[in-house]
Amino acid sequence: MKKIIVVGNGMVGYKFCEKFVAKEGSENYKIIVFGEEPRPAYDRVHLSEFFENQDAKALEMAPRSWYKENNIELITNVRINDIHRAKKTITGANDNEYSYDYLVLATGSSAFVPPIKGSEKEGVFVYRTIEDLEGMLAYADKLNKEKSNARAAVLGGGLLGLEAGKAAMDMGLEPHIVEFAPKLMPRQLDSRSSQVLQLKLESIGLNIHLSKATNQILGDDHITGMEFGEDDKLDVDMLIISAGIRPRDELAKTCDLEMGTRGGIVVNNKMQTTDPDIFAIGEVALYNQMIYGLVAPGYDMAGIAVDQIMGEEESLMPAEIDMSTKLKLIGVDVASFGEPFMPASKGHSIIFENKTQYLYKRINVSLDGKSLLGGILVGDASDYSMLHQIYLNGMKIPEDPAQLILPAGDGGASFGDVMDLPDEAQVCSCESVTKGQICSAIESGEATDLAGVVSCTKAGTGCGGCKPMIADLTNSTLKSLGIVVKEGVCDHFEHSRQDLYKIIQVKGYTKFDEVLDNHGTGGHGCELCKPLVASLLASINADTANKEYAIQDSNDRYLANIQRNGTYSVVPRIPGGEITPDKLIALGQIAKKYDLYTKVTGGVRIDLFGATLNQLPVIWKELISHGFESGHAYGKSLRTVKTCVGSTWCRYGMDESVSFGIELENRYRGIRAPHKIKGGVSGCIRECAEARGKDFGLIAVDGGWNLYLGGNGGATPRHAELFAEQIDNDTVIKYIDRYLMFYMRTAKPLQRTAAWQDRLEGGMEYLKEVIIEDSLGIAKDLDNEMQTLVNKFECEWTQAINDPETMKRFNHFVNSEEEDDNLVFVPMRDQKMPEQWN
Amino acid sequence: MGEILDKYKTVKPEDVKSWFKAAPISAFPKDGGACVKYKDLQIAVFNFERLGTWYACQNLSPEKQEMVLSRGMIGDHKGTPMVACPLHKKIFSLENGENLNGDLDAIATYPVKIDGENVYIGFSE
Ligand code: SRM
Ligand SMILES: Cc1cc2nc3c(=O)[nH]c(=O)nc-3n(C[C@H](O)[C@H](O)[C@H](O)COP(=O)(O)OP(=O)(O)OC[C@H]3O[C@@H](n4cnc5c(N)ncnc54)[C@H](O)[C@@H]3O)c2cc1C
Ligand code: SF4
Ligand code: FES
Question: Quick check: B33 and B57 in contact, CB under 8 A?
């Protein structure tokens, strides 16, 4: 049995093992892998995700058991020190000697630390391994405890440096990027795109310092600053060095393998070093005088080495290697492919730039205008996959190549259907999966959906950049096979929410059963479609949740939010957050009388918790007699319009934010939508009402209101986008009416405005056309529909307490006045709470 | 807590020894449920009008042991009549109590009969 030793258990070393054991005949070889790091190979490309969850396991390429199952001996925590070529053995740090038939060097690279005085100080880090990140996290934690505005600088404004900058920000530190060159990402971007990127990064809070050569790192034992020139200093508490990589070629030196003048082990196109039994792959290999600091070429090299060892002589590394990249800095799209910079002698460039939107797109086209040579995308890289494919496969481009990058609607057609790609087109370059392989996985029936395609082809499991394209291919292939890609809301309806909206509106349905019987697939509905139809009926007919209460989501059915012990909370509306002392006293007295746990909510109103079903109507009767009404905290409907005090009292106020907030809250109260809606009105740009975190937000400025749309808190926070500037109250109302109505008509179930707006083709520009310019000719309908809802508003709690039939709903038992005897409350800070769940 | 769960045992139609007169039909919403008190038990009773059938089960959700199932929404899951717990949407077959979207223990179910204007629940004691 022949023996292969792999030195280095990083991404490429692992890929070598994976590709090797997949080969027929691999059982005739014994593989031993040495890794210097304490854990098995992990996904370094997604290293930054470690900051989110500190879950090292989640990054593992494969668990230890995988190596065992495949008969691979994995020895971690051992560094190899020597190669003895004559004896064909290696020795490790433990002095044990191991013999090999083939040796594969996959030792990768290390972060390059420039020779700057003071770089050994505490608080200076590199960004390469999980241990590096653990060190940074601990240090940042310490800094954050010591002071509130600690700063971290990143040395290097390249691909990795920017990722590190984002990480610094996520660690709660004030991030600074220090770059030697006069622009960011000098290797991938031209000056204009680099400027656009810089503006965008500054807008999200990164501080950028260009053309700075760092002379020394200041501080006694730990870093306190960086010095660039005399009088040019930056105070920082932590530094992450990200100034490039150096191949870890130490082993080649010990045994006289040929090396490049600036490092790296020289290999030929078989990945052989100058000793034919020793291979080098990944970031340590110098191929064509180049180190390729990307994972995809490394994976290809691993494949070539496997083939060569198995005797497939004709499997060779191509001469040209694709270095296209997409930055995965969350929130900022940057990509470059092919030849990003190109001299005018070789072709023409088409450039589209819009600094207000932080958008820059450039494509380079051959002189004859027939092929795409490369390009740069900043701000919106959604076309990257397709452009990259067109470039890679030399596909034909439209007569007016500008169509490739113009925004849809401005003459830009979404050019190139994924299905037009040739079968050999490599869609996933990390895993070398072609379009043909993806389509045939579906055609053969092996996979029936996206998840299936990913698991049987491995496509999309590397950097993940190709995922959207895989999804498109999957859907198109399914469609071409006549398999309908279901958009239906659940098993009972094949229609989307948008279709059901139209159906109900046109047919004038008023009951769930009518919709189900005429348009359902048979069956009796479920917890997904019943509340959905209830919400549509409400949006269209201005019905309240009392109309057909058995189809309402549980909270709507009892007009209150169910709590974890089955009791309810009571949230009366406090429009704009304004409340008289008398009403405040009434709330307090009612809460006291019924022994309700009382708290100010995150939506700045008052929530009374712990009411039993039987108590709800009595409590509400009292509230209503004091002038309160339902706050719809239980509905997918308007919650609150948060306001700041504005010009009524505030010395900076530009307008009456409270008055306008109250007007808006009263206007939209009660309307049912795909998801809840929140608003905010701030009296000046200090933005104390956090209006930009709301579905609709207003900020008073000189000359009117700035209107922002599509903000969201929750799990994926997002700031609302500027929609219109300096508009008056009536225009605000007109725009919000149309915006909400258009959202109610077209969103998916339980989709907040932010998510809806993000997925709207054409985005904000399209919304402006529809709402301001009435490009669809529906503005009047939207206006009328909203006005009808506004006019028909009724407080559903007032409705409920005045109808004896409705009141029956609020008994715990139908055959007894008793209450739920299973409830147990325990005391907490002078109030009560439900007993803990076990 | 286990002891509350133990109080609820499925009763098969053939084992019914007594029919408890719960409430008039009109006390139950169409295609919805309400809760009936029987000795120290809480029984959820559903008027599945679309099927013309009545169902009864324990009111106690087995997941978090709260008395809430009667307030859940009913419908069908791939053809099986079911109730969805209002707390976390765990769904249970109304026919045999099985948890259809998880591996919780089945809930106890009880026979229901309609006599005249009234709804009766069957118990085995
Ligand atoms: C009561 C309250 C917490 C508190 O004690 O402060 C609360 C309580 C609940 N929130 Fe909230 N949220 C409350 C303010 C917020 C806020 C703050 C705000 O409104 O400014 C947010 C972030 C802003 C936003 O919505 O964008 C918020 C984002 C969420 C989300 C995430 C929504 C998203 O789009 O991702 C959920 C989950 C959901 O709706 O699917 C949620 C869901 C819930 C639910 C419905 C969870 C549940 O199913 O039980 C809670 C209802 C409890 C109840 O009985 O009222 N709650 N929730 C706050 C009620 C405000 C009010 O006066 O009506
Ligand atoms: C934060 C970050 C983000 C990145 N993002 C991207 C990206 O978006 N796209 C992309 O294509 N690439 C990206 N990269 C680069 C990518 O991670 C590398 O190209 C890839 O990891 C190279 O794999 P490798 O196996 O050659 O080297 P490594 O992953 O470095 O593995 C080498 C292993 O060998 C071990 N070793 C070294 N010497 C010895 C010895 N003598 N004895 C035993 N073991 C030894 C090392 O400890 C290491 O574990 C990123 C890198 C980082 C750090
Ligand atoms: S953050 Fe979570 S726990 Fe807190 S109220 Fe909102 S949903 Fe409930
Ligand atoms: S308590 Fe019923 S599903 Fe969670």
Answer: no
Q: Does residue A375 contact residue A387 with C-beta atoms inside 8 Å?
A: yes
Position A321 pLDDT exceeds 90: no
Mutant choice from B66, B67, B89, B90 vs A, greatest count of A C-beta within 10 A: B66
Question: Quick check: B113 and B11 in contact, CB under 8 A?
Answer: no
Domain span at residue B10 reads 2-123
Tokens of B51: 């099927």
Q: Does the beta-carbon distance from B23 to A822 stay under 8 Å?
A: no
Q: How far apart are CA A174 and CA A184, in angstroms?
A: 19
A223-231 contacts, C-beta under 8 A, 24 or more apart: A223/A118, A223/A121, A223/A122, A223/A123, A223/A124, A226/A153, A226/A155, A226/A178, A228/A178
State residue A139's pLDDT score. Answer: 96
Q: A296: Cβ–Cβ under 8 A, 6 or more apart, which residues?
A: A322, A429, A430, A462, A463
pLDDT in the model for residue A374: 92
Kindly list the distances between the CA atom of residue A385 and the CA atoms of A91, A440, A464, in Å, as whole numbers in the listed order: 45, 20, 11
Determine the number of helices (DSSP H) and then strands (DSSP E) in chain B. 1, 12
Judged against a pLDDT cut of 60, whether residue A409 lies above it is answered with: no
* Burial degree of A773 (CB within 10 A; 0-12, 13-18, 19+): exposed
> Any idea which residue has 């399914």 for tokens?
A478
Residue whose C-alpha is closest to residue A30's, from A66, A63, A61, A70 = A70
* Rounded distance from Cα B101 to ligand 3 centre (Å): 24
pTM of the predicted protein model: 0.54
**B73 → closest Cβ in A527, A809, A814:** A527
* Mean pLDDT value of segment A569-580: 96
Q: Please give all residues whose beta carbon lies within 6 A of any atom in ligand 1, as ranges.
A: A 561, 563, 569, 571, 599, 601-603, 605, 607, 633, 639-640, 678, 712-715, 752
β-pairing, A696-701 vs A704-709, is antiparallel
Question: What are the residues of chain B with a beta carbon less than 8 Å away from any beta carbon of chain A?
Answer: 1, 4, 22-23, 27-32, 34-37, 40, 42, 45, 48, 50-51, 60, 64-68, 71-79, 81-82, 84, 86-87, 89, 91
CB A795 within 8 A of CB A572: no
- Using DSSP's 3-state secondary structure scheme, residue B120 falls into strand
> Span A438-447, mean pLDDT?
87
Q: H or E segment at A721?
A: strand A721-727
Min CA distance, B29 vs chain A (Å)? 7
**Token pair 């113009």: residue:** A406
CA angle at A63 for the pair A60 and A65, rounded to the nearest 5°? 170
Count up the domains in chain B and report the number.
1
State in Å: Cα A822 to ligand 4 middle.
15
Cα angle A398, A401, A403 (rounded to 5 degrees) comes to: 85
**Mean pLDDT per 10-residue run, chain B (125 residues)?**
78 91 91 92 94 94 90 91 91 92 89 93 90
